[in-house]
Write a structure and sequence with these properties.
This protein has 289 residues and is α/β, with parallel strands linked by helices. The chain has one domain. It is built from 11 helices and 12 strands. Helix 3 (63-80) packs across helix 5.
Length: 289
């Protein structure tokens, strides 16, 4: 089996226990990063985080987004410490979907690909991904942002991992958006084989948040719009025109702090900047001048 990594915060043993029910092969755990523990003032000063964050359509910037970005970065570095040519990277809340074409089928089919792929997505946030079929395989060349992005499961080549690391700082995108921004030769399944728990079942997600809200989380559960699968939210989500927000003013703890704010009233056609109330690091602008 191809070398596999699972990103998980050490404290979240509950997630790894649940994950063992999904996996039947070996994997290495890479420590996740709790975005609430990061020193954002220092990270901006050191050039690790850009003072401006770019987000498709919404303009949402949360601490969970940065935790996820650093966690995936750690996974790429861990991979490059080996001599492997490819690896699989999973987030620890993944669930396999009942797709008639198995995960192993697609792993085998990658050997039929003639284009020099940089990344293969085995699942996105949405059930289906739009793109151009790749002749002789069941893969597609996905459109930018199709499937509402998502970094819960992907195959990465050694060269691509290095490219991601070389362009990583300062962080200015969520990690799933960053993958699409940097790696232009992308391959994907058409029907997601692997999805995040919150993207599969809304009630499961709401139940899960009773735990997720009280324990550290390295992925983007705290950057989540309840009801995004509705027709209106879905249409807004697929709009990929970027909005720029200011990290030093607009960083918030979680999506729960902004769901009732003006962003709900924005339309896809509106391209003004969306600003949110700074919750904790109001001194960043003054400190970084």
């Amino acid at each position: 089996m191809i070398k596999s990594y699972v990103i998980s915060i050490p404290e979240r043993t509950d997630r790894l226990e649940s994950l063992r029910q999904e996996f039947d092969w070996e994997y290495e755990v890479v420590d996740g990063v709790d975005g609430h523990t990061l020193d954002y003032t220092s990270l901006i000063k050191r050039g690790k985080i850009s003072k401006h964050f770019y987000s498709p359509s919404y303009g949402i910037c949360t601490k969970g987004v940065y935790g996820a970005a650093f966690a995936h970065y750690n996974a790429w570095k861990t991979f490059l410490e080996t001599e492997e040519e490819e690896c699989l990277i999973f987030e620890d809340d993944v669930r396999f979907t009942p797709n008639k074409l198995t995960f192993e089928h697609f792993l085998n089919q990658r050997h039929k690909l003639t284009l020099p792929y940089k990344i293969i997505f085995f699942g996105r946030c949405a059930p289906y991904v739009n793109g151009k079929p790749i002749e002789g395989t069941d893969f597609i060349e996905p459109e930018y942002g199709s499937g509402h992005f998502g970094a819960q499961c992907y195959l990465l080549t050694r060269r691509s991992a290095q490219e991601l690391i070389d362009n990583f700082f300062p962080i200015r995108y969520a990690v799933d958006v960053y993958l699409d921004e940097i790696l232009h030769t992308r391959v994907s399944v058409k029907e997601s084989l692997v999805r995040g728990l919150g993207h599969i079942n809304q009630q499961q997600y709401l139940d899960y948040r009773n735990t997720a809200c009280t324990k550290p989380d390295s992925d983007t559960h705290e950057n989540y719009f309840l009801g995004w699968e509705s027709e209106t939210m879905s249409k807004r989500r697929v709009q990929t025109a970027f909005k720029q927000i200011s990290v030093d003013f607009d960083l918030v703890d979680s999506i729960d702090e902004v769901v009732n704010q003006e962003i709900q009233n924005q339309t896809p056609e509106e391209r003004q900047f969306i600003r949110f109330t700074l919750k904790e690091i109001h001194s960043v602008t003054r400190d970084t001048k």
